[in-house]
Amino acid sequence: MRYQHLLVAVAATPESHRLVAKAVSIARPLNARISLITLATDPEMYNHFAAPMMENLRDVIQEETQQFLRDIAQHADYPIAETIIASGELSEHIKDFCRTRQVDLVLCGNHNHSFFSRATCSAKNVIGNTHVDVLLVALE
Question: What is the pTM of this model?
Fold first, then answer.
């Protein structure tokens, strides 16, 4: 299959650079587009404990997440078409992005090592909901 648009689900970890490198290795020979999606931490949990001191926690987390995406895109050595910061259920955002932006391959990382963990990991929701090819990359 000739992929035209890859969506890479990244997290603010060093392993995400390996995941983007894998996407680049697939996209480059095909001249395909790459987009990145990540999940922002919901600061409501933190605001509950320290609301008076941390009113702008949401802005701080948003800026840190944007900086992470800028850094990973800069180090990709390949053009990144779009970056998205999602909140809530990541698999739903991936499903919508695939449908509205004609994504034909989603790349997800997997840190789980046991068979049971792999079978129940969050990537299972992505595989079941997107109706596009999904590449689950082992990140150890």
Answer: 0.84
